[in-house]
Amino acid sequence: MTLEVADSRLAALCGLSQQTRDLMDAVALTDVGEDELLDITTRLADLTTRLQAKSRTSPQPFEIAPDGTLRHLGNAVTGGANPYALPLVVDRHDNGVSADVVFRPLHEGPPAGVHGGISAMILDHLLGQAVANAGLAGMTGTLTLRYRRPVPYGRPLVATAEHTTSEGRKTWAEGRIALPDGTVLVEATGLFITPTHWA
Amino acid sequence: MTLEVADSRLAALCGLSQQTRDLMDAVALTDVGEDELLDITTRLADLTTRLQAKSRTSPQPFEIAPDGTLRHLGNAVTGGANPYALPLVVDRHDNGVSADVVFRPLHEGPPAGVHGGISAMILDHLLGQAVANAGLAGMTGTLTLRYRRPVPYGRPLVATAEHTTSEGRKTWAEGRIALPDGTVLVEATGLFITPTHWA
Q1: What is the CA radius of gyration of chain A?
Q2: I need a labelling partner for B123 at 20 to 30 A (CA). Which of A115, B107, B168, B185 fits?
Q3: Is the domain of B60 the same as that of B94?
Q4: Which of A8, A77, A147 lies at the smallest CB-CB distance from B115?
């Protein structure tokens, strides 16, 4: 299989994942009748069986993207081939990382608001990326979230994070989810630990 | 519409959501060929359109469950009618709350491990439930997670949480995700604030 064919298959897989996200959104919001719900469920079962005809035991592995960066297409937060992922697209800058985020109704916790746990999930990921972007490596040791204001869905938000300090095997990073005008909704501070066998 | 009809429609909606979860899992792991991926994507688009024929603008509202408890079928973590939700089923006890959890491959962050952000999401929810179970009310103010060991998917795990102390409008809770033998994988401490207009 040439790289070109491999890439077109990966593109098809990412397209299927995006269509699955659209389906998830539609399921969470649908108000059609019971007979229609039951018929659609039966048809989804058939398509599920077709996808299971040949399966992996773990999600898509890490791949080298066209720009040379490492990408994990199966990652639960960023994976283009994982329907569970937003997917979060992380931009790297000299002094940190950022991501434009629009949460969806199916991310609801409190009425009209994004579940606090989903904000936590995004910030956990972004702080780790900020540490990696600073050329450091480590596993999350401690993550502290401060919830300032409700996080709305359906509106463009901006998530940013940056490495702050390092001391031996410990590295700290900070991040936040904010409105486009800079109003902070949720803040996070993380401590990352470099495993001893890497040091 | 009688209550019985409403319930059977809700059951159909929860069945559709569970089938959608099975589909998501199949998408994340499928290894079928490109033509099959493309054909399935087209069929999913048709089913999505059918579900969108009549839609709500926000997820399913809160409902009274048969046991008299309040349930939010659209909740991103616990909602039976939300494909994004595990769904987490929280058991209430005299001294806290618990939930049996089996994470799935599409929850992957590090290879063979659950994304740290997903552990954070579960603990955010469970600590809030522990506060509610103690008869207190509050919004999450601060949540601190300590990652002790990698969290595996595909294995039964136990998540527990309990209210610890209260002081004026502040309430604290603690929780953890553990192996069935009690080995703690991730711990959390949360501070919850009762809004002044409730006090």
Answers
A1: 19
A2: B168
A3: no
A4: A77
